[in-house]
Amino acid sequence: MARYTGPVCRICRRYGEKLMLKGDKCVSKCTLDRRPSPPGEQKAGRRRKLSDRALQLREKQKARYSYGVLEKQFVAYYEDAVRRPGVTGQNLVRLLEMRLDNVVHKMGFADSLKQARQLVRHGHIVLNGRRTDVPSAATKAGDTIGWHATSKKSEYFKVAKEAMSGKNIPAWLNVDREQMTGRVVSPPAVGEVPGTFDPAVIVEYYSR
């Protein structure tokens, strides 16, 4: 299955809630606020009630779109979460949150996850002092994230630095807004991750 490249607002309308796929723009300017109905032609009459399986699939798809991963990647994350000690659903969320592109976004270096992925792919980001262009690279507690020396001369870097003052950084990350560097303090706790999907329902989906 290829990565979705269409209008992301259609995804939020499909599921009837903001998945923050455009980052900060979803707060101030969201299509869902103006057009809350699902995309496509609407048939007259009462909508059919979703089955338990359909509800489980819905949660899984919301998680996939929220982190921008393909189905094969998502299954790999789930299988990794199952092998780890602890609650599978919580392990799954931590694995997704600790992706490099997501950490770059949460540190405020990018306005959206899509933008953060682009920064990584273009080699603007360094992980522990080494340039990496793999958005799915796994980070861990103690890792440092910063900008490549040549990228600090770009116009985007200047704009991103100016916008840092208005960014809310999660407690599990430590960011030096002046130097534009950050460190992963620890894996995120359950309550530190905004809930747009239910990980327990996703575990039920794959457990059947």
Describe the structure concisely for a colleague.
By secondary structure, this protein is of the alpha+beta class.
Q: In the CATH scheme, what's the topology name of the domain at 100-184?
A: Structural Genomics Hypothetical 15.5 Kd Protein In mrcA-pckA Intergenic Region, Chain A
What is the second-level CATH architecture of the domain at 100-184? Roll
Low-confidence stretches: none
Termini Cα gap:
22 Å
Oligomer: single chain
CATH class of the domain at 100-184: Alpha Beta
Radius of gyration: 18 Å
Question: What is the structural class?
Answer: alpha+beta
Spatial shape? globular
Biggest sheet layout = 5 strands, antiparallel
User: Could you give the order of strands across the largest sheet?
Assistant: 2-1-3-5-4
Element-level helix/strand string: HHHHHHHHEEEHEEH
Give the helix tally: 10
Give the rounded overall mean pLDDT.
85
> What is the percentage of strand-forming residues?
5-15%
Query: What is the helix fraction of residues, given as a range?
Result: 40-55%
Q: What name goes with the CATH superfamily of the domain at 100-184? A: RNA-binding S4 domain
The counted number of beta strands is 5
Note down, in words, how this protein is organized.
- The chain has 208 residues and is of the alpha+beta class.
- Among the domains are: 1-36, no CATH class; 100-184, Structural Genomics Hypothetical 15.5 Kd Protein In mrcA-pckA Intergenic Region, Chain A.
- It has ten helices and five strands; from the N terminus they run H-H-H-H-H-H-H-H-E-E-E-H-E-E-H.
- Strands 2-1-3-5-4 form a five-stranded antiparallel β-sheet, covered by helices on one side.
